[in-house]
Amino acid sequence: MKHKIFFIVLLALMFINGHAQKYMTKTGYAYFMSHTDAIDIDGSHNKVAAILDASNGELVVIILIKAFELPLATADKHFNETYMESDEFPKSTFKGKIQEMPELDLTVDGEHEVTAQGILEIHGKSHEINQKAKLIVKDGKLTGNCDFKVNIDDYAITVPEDVKDRVAKVVDVKIKMTLEPMEK
To answer: If you average pLDDT over residues 139-154, what whole number do you get?
Structure first.
């Protein structure tokens, strides 16, 4: 698993060019909640990888699907095998930019409302998104928080007819990452 994360981060590094200050994490937090009247299904993990180029706002985020831990073993199995097909689609990615990044002074602690714009890929399907987020600068580290919704139909995630009432059409997702400066 560590080799996969290293490989993914290495690929992400190729996406971001230049010699400007870069920030990264391999321990970002991802959480999802599928809420229906019948059941709540949620999962989380602390293995989100991300790299941010502070000079231009380019951001790459990689979420390993199999890393999600679900409280119920049967939910975990269905999540990976039936819905997310994680052997075929092992990761979700966001590649884009934080629009306000070039104007932000990252040497001063503070909170900033930002917009991440780019391509979100889940389950082999890609869609352009424009998502508000919060960026907190503290002691040279950047913490990004983002809450958004994913319509499973947009990403061709199918649910068997006999359990349609147990899986939400729109899933709540939360991401929290603390990125630290990379060594030059």
So the answer is: 96
